[in-house]
Design a protein that fits this description.
Oligomer: single chain
Mean pLDDT: 92
Largest sheet: 6 strands, parallel
Strand order of the largest sheet: 2-1-3-4-5-6
Distance between the termini: 13 Å
Order of helices and strands: EHEHEHEHHEHEH
Number of helices: 7
Radius of gyration: 17 Å
Helix content: 25-40%
Shape: globular
Low-confidence stretches: none
Number of strands: 6
Length: 232
Amino acid sequence: MRKPQCFCFPCAGGAATFFQGIEKDLPDAELVKMEYAGHGTRRKEPFYRDFGELAEDMVSRLRSAYTGGTYALFGYSMGSIALAEVLKRILADPGFPVPCCAFLGAHAPGPKAELEGFRPDELDEWVRERTIRFGAIPERIQRNASFWRMYLPLYRADYTIIGKYEFDKLDLRTDVPAAVFYSETDTPRREMEAWRKYFTGECGYYAYPGSHFFILEHHAEMAEIIREKMGL
C-alpha cells in the first residue's frame, strides 16, 4: 500500500540529509527530503536569487515526486518560508490536491532585521558566529578553514534571500491545519503566534527545550505530533 508522503524543506545551509533523524521515527510515512539548488546532491547548481525561484523549483520537484493520496509539508527554520511559498502556489492550482497539514518549525513569520546593512565580509562573520551559536556545527570543525570554504557560500546565499524576504507581501490564507514547533529561548511563542495570520484554521503550538536546532534532540516527540496530524 502506498505510504502517505511528507515533503520536507531544510534549514539555511542544510541539505536533504537534515531530516534523517526524524525519518527513522516515521516508518509509516515516506519522507521526501527536498534538496535546494547549490546544496547537498545539487551542490554544482547555482543558488537561488530569491524565494520565488526556490518555490518554483520546489513545486516542480514536489509534483514529480508526488505519488497520489495523502501528503503533508514540513519546513524547518528557513524551510518554513519555503513551505509557505510552496503552499501558496499549490493552493493557486485547483487541479492539484491540498496537503492534509503543514508543519512549521523554528522560524517566526517576520523580518530578520539583524540581516540588514551588512557588508559581505561582515555578513560572512555574522553567519559563521550565528551558525556556531545555533549548535549546527560540531565543535571539532568550528574553526576548520576547509569546512568554511565549502559551506560558507551556502549559508551566505540562504541568509541573503532570507534577509530580502518580505512576509508582509506573502499572499497566503488557508485553513490547512498547521502545527508549529518552537523553542521559547529561540523563537518565543509570542512571535510564532503570527503564523495564525496565514493559517486560519486549526493551528497547534508545540514547545521544546533547547536551541534553534531542538529537532536534533526532540525528533521523536515531534514525530509523534506528525503521526497524529497525518493520521498514521
